[in-house]
UniProtKB/TrEMBL annotation:
It comes from Agromyces agglutinans. Residues 1-23 form the signal peptide. It comes from the Bacteria. This is Uncharacterized protein. Keywords: Signal.
Length: 46
């Protein structure tokens, strides 16, 4: 369930703010931002 939730959050974040989210993600680190940031920032936003 956790993995599915993270995937859904990542998808929602990418669709909602692809430009800013992807820019911050690639700048901070693809792996780190893709997992930790998506789980935290996306959950707080959505």
């Amino acid at each position: 369930m956790t993995t599915s939730a993270l995937l859904l959050l990542q998808s929602a974040a990418a669709i909602a703010a692809a430009g800013l989210w992807l820019a911050a993600g690639f700048t901070a680190g693809t792996a780190t931002a893709g997992t930790a940031t998506a789980g935290t920032a996306t959950a707080g936003s959505a």
